Amino acid sequence: MTNPNVVLHVADVHKRFGGLHALADIDLQVEEGQTHAIIGPNGAGKSTLLNVIIGKLAPTSGQVVFDGTILTGRKPYQINQLGIARVFQTPEIFADLSVLHNVMIPALAKRDGAFRLNMLRGLDSETGILRESEDMLEDVGMFASREMAAGSLSRGDKRRMELAMCLIQHPRLLLLDEPTAGMSRHDTNTTIELLKKIKSRGMTKVIIEHDMHVVFSLADKISVLAQGRIIADGTPDQVRGNPKVQEAYLGGTH
Ligand SMILES: Nc1ncnc2c1ncn2[C@@H]1O[C@H](COP(=O)(O)OP(=O)(O)OP(=O)(O)O)[C@@H](O)[C@H]1O
């Protein structure tokens, strides 16, 4: 039976790279407002799955449905316009521009439907978007750094700015690709707190993460991938106690 709370449905998806079955028989249902983690050992197919969702890769068969709309066959920018944003994977930032201007640009692009170079000229006259961007920077703890050049930020601060750049677009679904990769424990904990704060706003999130501390701190549901298949899914407690998971993942290299 269809669950009315499901907002993202990856339905019977397969992805082959030549002879390699990178995704097999994937059925993933993400409920509105939840944080759904996808975990699994290296090479399990996590990035491939994320790329299929955002339209960067076409599945060999099956489809992805978001809020009743079939995403499969659409281009990444069209999927983005439907309210799906991805963070922490090669974001386009303007290293020489201030943090504040970097946050304003995606807000303007969203309002106007596309990015135009001449947006860079009139930034300071966009008072509404300027104020909203300042609020967003306040939210992610970056207000004090708003005049700094984006290229001079530390890795942790850059990721916070990137998160603000995503949130300012008010996505309905936020995809996070290893949000704490390469971070110190302190920055990781700050990011967890930040993501919890976003969670309380009810935004749906799909998160790929290697760090089990992050996964168990944030996830409402976890799907475990191994060799391209979902071998278990459920609440963190259900997944933690699943012997198949312990064998394939938790007892493995991580
Ligand atoms: N473009 C591609 N062409 C051929 N094979 C690919 C391609 N992309 C991924 N693969 C293969 O598909 C499998 C799944 O890779 P994927 O990157 O999705 O795994 P992952 O779970 O994200 O791994 P990691 O945790 O190491 O990032 C791997 O065997 C990988 O080598």
UniProtKB/TrEMBL annotation:
The keyword Zinc-finger does not apply. InterPro entries: AAA+_ATPase (IPR003593), ABC_AA/LPS_Transport (IPR051120), ABC_transporter-like_ATP-bd (IPR003439), BCA_ABC_TP_C (IPR032823), P-loop_NTPase (IPR027417). Keywords: ATP-binding, Nucleotide-binding, Transport. Residues 8-252 form the ABC transporter domain. GO terms for cellular component: plasma membrane. It comes from the Bacteria. One of its GO terms (molecular function) is ATP hydrolysis activity. This is Branched-chain amino acid ABC transporter substrate-binding protein. It comes from Devosia psychrophila.
